[in-house]
Amino acid sequence: MARVVLGVAGGIAAYKSAFLLRLLTEAGHDVRVVPTANALRFVGAATFEALSHHPVTPEVFDDVDQVAHVRIGQEADLIVIAPATADLLARTVHGRADDLLAATVLVARCPVLIAPAMHSEMWQHPATVANVAILRERGVLVLPPADGRLTGADTGPGRLLEPAEIADLAELALRAGPQALRPDLLGRRVLISAGGTREPLDPVRFLGNRSSGKQGLALARVAAARGAEVTLVTANMDAPAPAGTRSIAVATADQMRVEMLREAKQADVVVMAAAVADFRPTIVSDGKIKKGSKDPEPITLTRNPDILCELVADRHPGQVLVGFAAETGDANGTVLEYGAAKLSAKGVDLLVVNEVDADVGFDRPDNAATVLSAEGGQTTVPRGPKALLAARIWDLVSARLSNPGPGHR
Ligand code: CTP
After folding, report:
1. d(CA 361, ligand 1 centre) in Å
2. Residues in contact with 103: Cβ distance below 8 Å, sequence separation at least 6, in sequence order
3. Which of 38, 131, 209, 367 is catalytic?
4. Which CATH superfamily is domain 189-402 in?
5. What is the reported pTM?
6. Ordered mean pLDDT values, 10 residues apiece, the chain (409 residues)
7. Separation of 125 CA from ligand 1 center, angstroms?
8. CATH architecture under which domain 3-181 falls
């Protein structure tokens, strides 16, 4: 359990902070809500008090005997401000302490995670751009807002990230520290495949796999939070793409190949997290295959293209390529030995190796893996949330981007 301060500023998205509060408390954290006076024009203090089990006030002169304006910030393990308005960003930059939230941020030495929400004009104004840059320089984690529907009929950048995404990123900051969300991918273009391809047998049946796409989504969410421009190629996924990312839906390996090869031309990093079917039925029946009374015909299979190998062959200088491998060990080799052989066969920079027979992997919120590098490096990431593995992968990618090896100049 961590002590989390949830700061809420006065914008229409303040109503979403009640959902975020719920998610943070359900994760087991002790959450203290500190709204601004204007936030309370959108959501009543009673809502925050009932959900957090703590008193709520925007004023420094309430609870003076408790010295709340100092204590709340000193005791916090993490401050999450969602939504943060342009005004709050400006006040934070200037070290103002004119209400309880500003004072709390000034006192705190814990990580501060800010999810802004405002109209696009305000987000793009040079004053706000400069304020965000200053805050990031000071180590404050300012999440890029989503691009989408704003208060009225207008759309654009400035929409609050979804409460579940903010909760996920807050958990990551608590577990892995603020480094996991540093803006080291600003200006980088990242392409990620996720999900599992389905190869049709007839109009209603397919050969598929158990990949849920959750690891790919976590990679996308963390990359976007670290400033990357993210494109996701998703195969048969139920979960929505993270806010602020662009996504292209495909069904089969062939369709994924086309999209990945095209999009990779502009990408600084390509991650193949999707589970791609190695084979597809040779004949796809136009009509539904009938049961009939005879014995079933065997299904003949044709080899699918290896997308990752084609991406490697097509790579441009400096591009970083990451593959995934779900492996099992046997008498001929360990999981890591098979992984190392696959890394060199595919020619990728990094290969994320999952042991599939451990209690990790498919359709679970957590994962464990060892990331192998082309130079023989091994980074073991113990079992934890998929966002944690995603952050470690981005650390390794980011190091390669800032220091490309001799083969990639
Ligand atoms: N991959 C791909 N195209 C395929 C098959 C796999 O791009 N047709 C990618 C996966 O997205 C993953 C990596 O290659 O990043 C390794 O996938 P995996 O299924 O483990 O490897 P295969 O080459 O299929 O080898 P095998 O199944 O025999 O272990």
Report:
1. 16
2. 60, 69, 70, 73, 97
3. 209
4. CoaB-like (3.40.50.10300)
5. 0.94
6. 97 97 98 98 98 95 82 96 98 96 97 97 97 98 90 85 97 97 97 98 95 95 97 95 94 98 98 97 95 88 98 97 94 96 97 77 80 97 95 98 68
7. 45
8. 3-Layer(aba) Sandwich (3.40)
